[in-house]
Specification:
The chain is elongated, with a radius of gyration of 31 Å. The chain has 18 helices and four strands. A hairpin with a 2-residue loop joins strand 1 and strand 2. The chain is mostly helical. The strands form two sheets. The protein has a two-stranded antiparallel ribbon with strand order 1-2. The structure holds arginine. Arginine binds next to helix 6. The site of arginine has 10 residues, from helix 6.
Length: about 475
């Protein structure tokens, strides 16, 4: 049986690669998902070769038809991918050339080195847009949950100890802010992904008069003013993967944000907090303990951040010792990049769905937020209003807290006499600070969890996120 040998070996090599070598070196098992972008790049490259006279109109037409037929077959699951042909690029080229003789001209002035850089950039552009859409959807889910429970207060925590009361919406909007910065980072990354490397050849461009700007424009590699965005150094263009690193870095930070949100949700579902209930469809049972309902989706959202961080580290490590320019090591970039994109997109989507199916336990939240100790700082502020230096007020309220502990009473049940035993500045109105509603109405600095400020922020986000 005649072994299939890739075109890249045809002239210089007597045989195709051995089976184990083919298995070790192939990438078609995972880079075939680039096929749409590879074909798109080839269609545009063919159009350009026609324009500069390398392809006749008839040849270009035959190539276009051939590529479109192949695309339909791949779509229908009928295309036979061959491991011996290494990667998606050679599989498609070999099949095209088998059907259309002019296919042999398609690789003119193009190398897999600039081709793979192009495909990755085209693929990543689409991926970023899809991810941005999913993030906006998650932001909407957070805002909706906040709006539906606009009056719910919970303790805010530092060091995981109760600190000061906040609206639940304020807590949720903190994640909306983080996610917004993730979107900004992804857009920023997009502007550097959106640069066309085609025409860089293997390393040193081509002696043929390619029209790089035409290719870039046809593929949408343009800035806001419609100007073609072209890589400016052929060596950089074929060896650089920092656009992929940037995406994986933005993805890692996004994954970390999702992980923190997941951790909050996990805590909140516990009997100890009991702030929320996640719908059955988004929880799982235990194989042993019949009573269990576990927040597995949130746990996986938290756990998957590990692999996304790992992907970033893997990519950086892959690049750090590479001599210029293209080295086959770079083939290892794809699975890390794909995995980050797939993982963060799925995590964002599932987190949004889970939040849409989460109910707030208002009674438990109210009980926790009703802890008067959360307003100890307000009591210190009361003394400050009476002219006491804050350090002194902090000390006095500390003594009040200690006294309440000794008397085994909640802070707001101390008598005026008891308060005054600590400091004479406490007046009749001192206990008024423990009115939670009033306390929340007072916190109206920009960014604070005050009643009107949180309402304003919810309205601002609702408007910004209108689909
Ligand atoms: N499959 C290769 C990759 O993903 C394509 C480029 C191969 N280029 C080469 N000169 N062997 O990096």
């Amino acid at each position: 049986m005649k072994k299939i040998s890739p075109v890249s070996r045809s002239g210089r090599f007597a045989h195709g690669p051995g089976a184990d070598v083919a298995r070790f070196t192939e990438s078609v098992s995972f880079d075939r998902r680039l096929w749409r972008h590879d074909i798109l790049g080839s269609l545009v490259h063919a159009a350009m070769l026609r324009k500069i006279g390398v392809l006749s109109p008839a040849e270009a037409g035959a190539i276009v038809r051939g590529l479109k037929t192949i695309a339909r077959e791949i779509e229908a699951g009928k295309f036979k991918w061959k491991t011996e042909l290494e990667d998606v690029h050679m599989n498609l080229e070999a099949e095209l050339t088998r059907r259309v003789p002019a296919g042999a001209k398609l690789h003119t002035a193009r190398s897999r080195n600039d081709q793979v850089a192009l495909d990755l950039r085209l693929w990543l552009r689409d991926e970023i847009i899809l991810l941005l859409g999913e993030i906006a959807d998650l932001q909407r889910a957070l805002v909706t949950l906040g709006e539906k429970n606009a009056d719910v207060l919970i303790p805010g925590y530092t060091h995981l100890q109760r600190a000061q009361p906040v609206y639940l919406a304020h807590h949720l909007l903190a994640y909306v802010e983080m996610l917004e910065r993730d979107c900004e980072r992804l857009w920023d990354c997009y502007s550097r992904v959106n640069v066309c490397p085609l025409g860089s050849g293997a390393i040193a461009g081509s002696t043929l008069p390619l029209d790089r700007a035409l290719v870039a424009k046809l593929l949408g590699f343009v800035n806001a003013n419609g100007q073609a965005q072209l890589t400016q150094n052929s060596m950089d263009a074929v060896s650089d993967r920092d656009f992929a690193v940037e995406f994986c870095a933005a993805g890692a930070l996004l994954a970390v944000h999702l992980s923190r949100l997941a951790e909050d949700l996990i805590l909140w579902t516990s009997a100890e907090f009991d702030f929320i209930k996640i719908a059955d469809a988004y929880t799982t049972g235990s194989s042993l303990m019949p009573q269990k309902k576990n927040p597995d989706i949130a746990e996986l959202a938290r756990g998957k951040s590990g692999r996304v961080i790992g992907n970033l580290v893997a990519l950086l490590t892959l690049l750090k010792g590479l001599p210029m320019t293209y080295n086959r090591d770079l083939q290892e970039d794809k699975e890390r990049l794909f995995d980050t994109a797939d993982t963060v997109r799925a995590t964002v989507r599932l987190t949004a769905a889970m939040l849409r199916n989460t109910k707030i336990n208002r009674a438990s939240c109210a009980a926790a937020a009703g802890d008067p100790a959360l307003l100890a700082t307000d009591l210190a502020d009361y003394l400050v209003r009476k002219g006491m230096p804050f350090r002194q007020a902090h000390h006095a309220v500390g003594a009040v807290v200690a006294l309440a502990e000794i008397l085994d009473k909640p802070l707001n049940r101390l008598t005026l006499a008891e308060l005054q035993s600590v400091d004479k500045k406490f007046g009749r109105d001192a206990l008024g600070v423990f009115d939670l509603k009033r306390a929340m109405a007072k916190r109206n600095l920009i960014g604070a969890p005050g009643t009107s400020e949180v309402a304003k922020q919810l309205a601002r986000w609702r408007k910004l996120l209108q689909a």
